[in-house]
Amino acid sequence: MKIIGNLIWLLLGGIIIAIEYLIGSIALMITIIGIPFGLQTLKMASLAVWPFGRDSRVHSRSSGCLYILMNVIWLIFGGIWIALTHALLGLVLCITIIGIPFGLQHFKLTSLGLTPFGRDIVHL
Fold it and tell me: Are 116 and 40 in contact (CB under 8 A)?
């Protein structure tokens, strides 16, 4: 069932979202300062390609000031727009019964879009 959900996800726009994240990641990695943010965007691209059966979890070593600082910088310079876009797409998809699973995947990406630092992608 996960494979079917992922294939439908790709056909209905998941591949476009992943490509956008990949282009953004390449653009961020042009400068040395943008490399950590580009790596987080790659993390979101990998989840956007194959979201069913995977989730993002806070890892145990994520305590500390650096993760909080990087998440605040991320949130100010674009993370809020990524999260709002995924939340809006999730709400639109949840209007229909067929779109509910895909809307839930957008809500998962909303969570990752808000605070990507200190999270890992795990298989369920």
Answer: yes
DSSP letters along 11-75, please?
A: IIIIHHHHHHHHHHHHHHTTSSTTHHHHHHHHHHHHHHHS-TTEEEEE-TT--SHHHHHHHHHHI
Which residues fall within 8 angstroms of residue 60, CB to CB, at 6 or more apart? none
CA distances from 67 to 40, 64, 83 (A): 12, 6, 18
Residues 117 and 70 sit within 8 Å (Cβ to Cβ)? yes
The Cα angle at residue 41 between residues 37 and 46, in degrees rounded to 5 = 150
This prediction has a pTM of: 0.83
pLDDT digit string (tens) for 20-51? 889 989 998 998 888 998 988 998 898 889 89
Q: What is the pLDDT of residue 63?
A: 64
Backbone angles phi, psi at 120, to 5 degrees: -120, 150
